[in-house]
Amino acid sequence: MRHDESLPPTPRRRPLRLAAAAALLGLGLAGCGGGEAGGTAQAQAGPSGGAATVPPSASASPSPAPTKAAPSPSKSPKSPSRPPSKTPPAPTGPLSGRTVVIDPGHNPANHLHTAEINRQVGIGTGHKECDTTGTATNGGYAEAEFTLDVAHRLRTLLRDQGATVILTYDRDRAFGPCVDERARIGNKAHADAVVSIHADGSAVGNRGFHVILPASVRGGGADTSKIVAPSRDLGTRIAGLFVRSTGSSPSNYIGGKTGLDVREDLGGLNLSTVPKVFIECGNMRDPKDASLLTDPGWRQKAAQGIADGIGSYLKG
Questions:
Q1: Residue whose C-alpha is closest to residue 99's, from 171, 147, 161
Q2: Cβ neighbours, 10 Å, residue 87
Q3: d(CA 278, CA 197)
Q4: Element (H, E) at 132
Q5: In whole angstroms, how large is the CA radius of gyration of the chain?
Q6: In sequence order, what are the residues at sequence separation of 6 or more whose Cβ sits closer than 8 angstroms to the Cβ of residue 111?
Q7: How many angstroms separate the CA atoms of 159 and 190, rounded?
Q8: Dihedral sign of CA atoms 156, 158, 161, 164 in order
Q9: Tell me: the pLDDT tens digits for 252-295?
Q10: How far apart are CA 230 and CA 238, in angstroms?
């Protein structure tokens, strides 16, 4: 509630003691008004630096005799300085302390940069294009969009278990990265596991998923001798738990229905120094598989199956 802080004008000059008391009374009233700034009325400086109260509508009247300055009206205390914001701690969980690199295959904008992605890079066993555009469903749903969607879902699932998750790219570059750089990202991170997500583009009637494992390669800057065995373990666990999560069957056209395939012509595998596999989640060119790959609910199941496989591998 606002207090009336005006004082009635005085018709004649008062004795010094009485004038000083009136001035102090005015200051006392000015200091008890409400509000965050410590009062709605303000004391103004008197003729000689002392504080005096000015009534809002008083006619001109003789100023009281100079008095000793009284304490200024109370002010709100300064807000304590906030400590610098801190990055929230990573969730704790069974994968705490583990690093997983997710490699979403291709890039939605690769088709706009054909010269760049056609540049040849070394893959150990020879040379291949920096990257490719990937495939798409007959309805135009691009593999590169599919891989990013599953990668985001997978990242969430792994982070929820405490893992540190790195994506090789996340719409943060115009094209690529090239296959050799994708391998280097996992190597530089000293990843405990790397999974490259893809979808195949085969003939109609070819259905199912398969996991691609690195072959034993040595030469041209590539040496997979230390990662062949752990990569097979990682890939086998992903294949088994992908079936359980999605209900999909292993490929009927690659891998002898085991869901596993071994290749020596993929730079992302050949140049890796940490356990790494590819997964082709289905055939985008087959209508039945395409109906799964374009379903957000199924993509969540796919991410869950991959996450379960990674978790099983990392927990031993």
A1: 161
A2: 5
A3: 6
A4: none
A5: 37
A6: 133
A7: 17
A8: negative
A9: 999 999 999 999 999 999 999 999 999 999 999 999 999 999 99
A10: 12
